Structure formats: C-alpha cells, structure tokens
Amino acid sequence: MTEDLAYDVFARACPSRGTLEHVTGRWGSLTLGALHAGTFRFNELRRRVDGVSEKMLSQTLHALERDGLVHREAQPTNPPRVDYRLTPLGREVAERLMGLIELVEGRMPQVEAARRSYDAERTAPATARPPAPATA
Questions:
Q1: What are the beta bridge partners of residue 74?
Q2: Those residues with Cβ within 8 angstroms of residue 48's Cβ, 6 or more apart along the chain or in another chain
C-alpha cells in the first residue's frame, strides 16, 4: 500500500491487520501493558508477564519492535544488558490499551456473574430449560 491510500483493517491484505494482531494478541497486549509502567530488562518483563515463555516473549518483542511500538537498547556491558521500552507510538497505543485493561478488570464482577448464569443455563437438565423459540 502506498502512503496516499487509506488503511482498512477489515481488508484481508491491509498491513494494519498484522499490527492489530500484534497489539491485541494475548502476549502483545500484556507486553505493551507491562511496558506502560516503564523500562524493563528481558527477564524482568518475563516475570511481569506471568506465564509467557522466553520464546514467545522474544517473538512478541521482535514483532512489536518491527512495528515501531517497542525500542530495544543493548548496552555494551559485560554481561550484556538489554532494555525494552515503549516508543512514542507504543506509548500512545499502550495508553488506549490500558483503558481497556482497566475497564475489563473493573467489570470482572459483572463478567463473572454473566459466566455463572451462562454456565447454569447450559448445565440445567433439558426438562428444566424453557422451550426453544419456534422458527418460521
């Protein structure tokens, strides 16, 4: 795509779709959210993003760095030190992502109640369920 064309994430070939996947995937969103708090070394970030494997965090950081959202800075020390931080674009994306994270965390009591209700309806005996609506 050239600079003068509009990007459309709903179009299969649009490059914005890949970036959206990097940002909204499990590890991408958690990594951006963690980096919102500041600069981290790789192992600090891995501890913060509980459950991510070394391989997945490395792949995620590479994708986010390629998209211009994360800056990787290697220090010429012994042993080598590598720090990761958000770029200005990454900070802008992470700000919006943090709003979503805070909304989801704040609404978890409603989500959990909805899950319980949903699960109860589906595990109730068939005779206790209301009849399905007739289709025309």
A1: 82
A2: 34, 37, 40
Order across the sheet with 70-75: list the strands.
40-41, 81-86, 70-75
Which tokens in the block code for residue 116? Answer: 């319980």
pLDDT tens, residue by residue, 54-95: 999 999 999 999 999 999 999 888 888 999 999 999 999 999
Percent of the chain with pLDDT over 90: 80
Alpha helix (H) residue ranges in the chain: 16-24, 26-35, 42-48, 54-66, 88-106, 108-123
Residue 120 DSSP one-character state = H
In 3D space, the residue among 5, 25, 60, 30 whose CA is nearest the CA of residue 17 turns out to be 25
Query: b/e string for 25-62 if b means 16 or more Cβ within 10 A?
Result: eebbbbbbbbbbeeebebeebbeebeebeeebbeebbe
**Which residues are CB-contacts of 110 (< 8 A; sequence separation ≥ 6)?**
none
| Predicted model pTM | 0.82
